[in-house]
TrEMBL record:
Signal peptide: none annotated. The lineage of its organism: Bacteria, Pseudomonadati, Pseudomonadota, Gammaproteobacteria, Oceanospirillales. Transmembrane segments: none annotated. This is IS4 family transposase. Residues 443-453 have a biased composition (Basic and acidic residues). It comes from the Bacteria.
């Protein structure tokens, strides 16, 4: 059938519409901007000129991670269409070349680029964004699930309480974020069970991220003796909830009293050396620590900020409420961006996929920081999801980075403000009922065999 002029025009219009919905070039332009160009050129490996060079592959990986359809076929189709419309040589729609390019993409390139962007944004923050002029770092952990493949199960085994074939590989992640800007400064990934798989071990592996003068805020799980000692040795202060093992023995009648339920105490070094610590490290650790312990807002806090005139109990009460921000940051990464369930079937690519999500998150946070500066706001006052939606719309409409258009984009980003979230209490329960399907209690191939033999049950339990 020979196409008519009208049918060709309709076909071209459909192609242009599809191309306008793709945002690969948007990430490519953002990664090629002046801020990141030098860093990317240093991190990029030596490569021949191909259809999918490292920067292009990374931008496609970003697009893939943030799309509703995260299949490799979808992102390759977008890239091929863009080449056709821009009068370049037509490439194949097969995904093999892109998958190989994604495997060759160095993990160090993605992770170092994420850390570089986070550190850069954090260092550019105005002083009035910080707490008492000091940078605050939030720490917390979370988990994500991976596809149930043998390789993933070997590297990130499922929960020991689940039968084989019924669970999914679980990866534990501990991250460090900036309180003022919200960017991710560093992260560590590991197994969810076994030796060295807890959040404390992962945090120790990235504690070099903290710099002199920083304040580290976390929950009670991280307030251990040797972590506090390590932070004091680096010139870093901590504000955390009292560790669970010491809560019951807290007695405000002891120590040096500096206020109502506020005193200075001495923590003695544990007599037993932890398994992860060498004999030399244990011997060089201080024999005692002098810290401040206070009760405020219904919580017992420990801190190395011991001057009550500079840091009052009321200051700590309002300050520690901001620890909730890292819970919101994790929700933005896992739920809003979609990192909760990974899609890569090998552990190496899965770790790379996590860093791609963190890079995408930092790119959005960069634009939020710029929007806050233009609008004289704090970045935490701006809605993350609103900014993400506007950025996606901008990529669909605009073909180039125009200074005037970007300024208007930042102004639009600052219009939607979040409410005052401090002290919010929500039940850990969901209202919507799940569908009335029973849980899978045996491996899928056995369940299929039962259906073939006996048919589907007449009534779902």
């Amino acid at each position: 059938m020979h196409p008519t002029q009208a049918s060709r025009q309709h076909q071209q219009k459909r192609i242009q519409t599809h191309q306008s919905n793709a945002d690969i070039n948007g990430f490519y332009r953002l990664l090629s901007s002046d801020l990141l160009a030098d860093e990317i050129s240093e991190l990029s490996p030596e490569h021949r000129e191909r259809i999918y060079p490292p920067t292009k592959t990374l931008s496609m990986f970003l697009t893939q991670a943030m799309s509703a359809d995260r299949s490799c076929q979808n992102v390759v189709n977008q890239a091929v269409l863009q080449r056709v419309i821009s009068d370049q040589n037509r490439a194949s729609t097969h995904t093999g070349a892109y998958c190989k390019a994604r495997q060759k993409l160095p993990l160090a390139m993605v992770s170092q680029l994420t850390r570089f962007l986070g550190q850069w944004v954090s260092k550019q923050t105005p002083e009035h964004w910080n707490w008492n002029g000091r940078s605050v770092r939030l720490v917390d952990g979370t988990t994500v699930t991976l596809p149930d493949t043998e390789a993933n199960q070997e590297s990130f085994p499922q929960s020991s309480g689940q039968k084989p074939g019924l669970g999914f590989p679980i990866c534990r992640i501990v991250g460090i974020t900036c309180l003022s800007s919200g960017v991710v400064l560093n992260a560590a990934m590991g197994r969810c069970c076994g030796k060295g798989s807890n959040e404390q071990s992962l945090l120790r592996s990235i504690q070099d991220t903290f710099e002199v003068g920083d304040i580290v805020m976390g929950d009670a799980y991280f307030a251990t003796y040797f972590f506090i000692a390590a932070m004091q040795a680096r010139g870093v202060d901590i504000v955390m909830e009292q560790h669970g093992s010491r809560k019951l023995s807290t007695d405000f009648r002891k120590g040096q009293r500096i206020g109502t339920r506020d005193h200075l105490i001495q923590l003695n070094k544990p007599k037993k050396r932890p398994d992860w610590m060498s004999e030399e490290q244990y011997l060089t650790a201080p024999v005692a620590l002098r810290i401040r312990e206070l009760k405020t807002g219904g919580k017992i806090l420990v801190t190395t900020l011991t001057d009550p005139k500079t840091y009052s109990k009321e200051d700590f009460k309002q300050f520690y409420k901001q620890r909730w921000h890292i819970e919101l940051d994790i929700r933005n990464i896992k739920e809003t961006l979609g990192m909760n369930i990974l899609s890569c079937k090998s552990p190496e690519l899965a770790i790379k996929e996590v860093w791609v999500y963190l890079l995408a998150y930092n790119l959005i946070r960069l634009m939020m920081a710029q929007s806050a500066l233009h609008s004289d706001l704090m970045p935490r006052q701006i809605s993350f999801k609103h900014c993400l939606q506007l950025w996606r719309c901008y990529l669909q409409i605009c073909r180039a980075f125009d200074d005037k258009q970007l300024y208007e984009l930042f102004m639009l980003m600052s219009e939607q403000r979040v409410g005052n979230r401090s002290g919010r209490i929500e039940p850990r329960a969901v209202k919507r009922r799940p569908k009335p399907f029973p849980l899978l209690t045996k491996p899928r191939h056995e369940a299929r065999a039962d259906v073939r033999k006996n048919g589907h049950p007449k009534k779902l339990k």
